[in-house]
Write a structure and sequence with these properties.
By secondary structure, this protein is α+β, with helices and mostly antiparallel strands. It folds into three domains: about 5-110, PAS domain (Beta-Lactamase, 2-Layer Sandwich); about 115-245; about 250-399, 2-Layer Sandwich (Heat Shock Protein 90). Helix content is about 50%, strand content about 20%. It contains eleven helices and twelve strands. It has helices at about 5-10, 30-35, 40, 55-70, 115-165, 170-210, 215-245, 255-265, 265-270, 290-310, 365-375, and strands at about 15-20, 25, 75-80, 85-95, 105-110, 250-255, 275-280, 285-290, 315-325, 325-335, 380-385, 390-395. It has a five-stranded antiparallel β-sheet, with helices on both faces. The protein has a five-stranded mixed β-sheet with strand order 7-9-10-12-11. The longest helix is centred in the middle third of the chain and has 52 residues, at about 115-165. It is rod-shaped, with a radius of gyration of 36 Å. The termini are far apart.
Length: about 400
């Protein structure tokens, strides 16, 4: 090997030579820098001066068996530095033969892979933590699913009580509306989870790319993003459980908060259908059950979303609330094309629907109007305006 090649190797790698017994006869400056030993401490010492105590003895048995059979040995070595720190080196040990084909010494060429090994360990640890989080999330989903089933049974029990109080037809309508509402909520859970699952897949892919780039900063960033997505998915289940809580008595509630809750629950559905929402909501307190009013807004949002289907236009929904004299006024408008004049006076009748039979029960507007009138002592009306509908809800401010 010419001196130029030798210098190039020594300047860019960590190099050492030992005799047949493993005694160090040469080290370059890079070897001294990474090990922390001086040349004087290393020359004449056995190469096991940098051996890490955690490395199994059988590794060294394989090493010696290989190089004594005149074959090169390649591996990633865990070494112990003088200050007690650990380094990982990709190492190739090559036997050097004399003119009689006998081994006269060994030369070892290494390069530092400590950062890559530590990154890999860090990623494996984060994978374990993510797996644990996934298991925890699965347990939460099971528990919340059980709660939803229990709540469903509670709803059925409440329906049975309503049947005892009211006329048969109205009782059946009430039961069917509640079941349709539950089905809509389950569909909304699917909408709420679809996007974060996509985001989680993308984030984990970015973690993989960050590892290849050896970017510890990006790994931490995407790891934290994954935790946030999983926690938000868990919170979604809790939000829907609270929404169906059947044990709420009538009390003062904020119309603005109730409307915003409905918008939060249907957010993914609205985004998926590219519907622009505009709100101008005053803080107005009403006496009643907040969940029931949120269900009304959800039903109106669902109806407008269905009406927008197959329409190529900029889709808009606006919701406005304000006080007029002694009443709270809520105006709900869309630009989905409105309703045919010949059917306009039938929209609040039970079982009337403009949707396909498989997509609607015809109970939404009927039950919404019934809740407004019977539970909130208000009024609900609908009319066509411009290129959509205008629904007006009028609620008294006194209890």
């Amino acid at each position: 090997m010419s001196q130029t090649y030798q210098e190039a190797i020594e300047n860019s790698n960590i190099v050492s030579r030992t005799d047949i017994n493993g005694i160090i006869t040469f080290v370059n400056e890079e070897f001294c820098k990474i090990s922390g030993f001086t040349k004087e401490e290393l020359l004449g010492s056995n190469h096991n001066i940098v051996r890490h105590p955690e490395v199994p003895k059988e590794n060294f048995t394989l090493l010696w068996n290989t190089i004594l059979s005149k074959k090169p040995y390649k591996t990633t070595v865990k070494n112990l530095c003088k200050d007690g720190s650990t380094v990982y080196l990709n190492t190739t040990i090559t036997p050097i033969l004399d003119e009689n084909e006998n081994i006269k010494e060994f030369i070892a060429i290494r390069y530092d892979v400590t950062q890559e090994v530590e990154l890999k360990k860090d990623l494996e640890q984060k994978d374990k933590e993510l797996n644990l989080l996934n298991k925890t999330l699965e347990e939460k989903v099971k528990k919340q699913t059980a709660k939803l089933l229990e709540l469903n049974q509670t709803l059925e029990h409440r329906v049975a009580k309503e049947i005892e109080k009211n006329e048969e037809k109205q009782k059946l309508l009430f039961w069917q509306s509640r079941m349709a509402s539950l089905g809509q909520m389950l569909a909304n859970i699917a909408h709420q989870w679809r996007q974060p699952l996509t985001e989680l897949t993308l984030t984990l892919f970015n973690v993989k790319k960050a590892v290849k780039k050896q970017s510890s900063k990006e790994i931490d960033k995407y790891y934290k993003e994954s935790l946030e997505i999983i926690n938000n998915m868990s919170k979604t289940i809790e939000d829907f459980s609270n929404f169906f809580n059947p044990n709420k008595e009538k009390e003062e509630f904020c119309l603005k908060s109730s409307i915003e809750e409905a918008l939060a629950i249907t957010k993914k559905m609205l985004e998926k259908n590219n519907i622009e929402i505009n709100t101008n909501l005053e803080k107005i307190d009403i006496f009643g059950v907040s969940n029931e009013f949120s269900q009304i807004i959800i039903n109106l949002l669902q109806n407008s979303t269905d009406a927008f289907k197959d329409k190529e236009k900029k889709k808009k929904i606006s919701i406005k609330s304000f006080i007029d004299k002694d009443c709270a006024i809520i105006e709900f408008k869309d630009n989905a094309g409105g309703i045919e004049e010949k059917t306009l006076d039938k929209v609040f009748e039970p079982y009337f629907t403009t949707k396909h039979q498989s997509n609607g029960t015809g109970l939404g507007l009927f039950m919404s109007k019934m809740i407004i009138e019977k539970s909130l002592n208000g009024k609900m009306s609908l009319e066509n305006c411009f290129d959509g509908i205008n629904i007006t809800i009028k609620l008294p401010l006194e209890k």
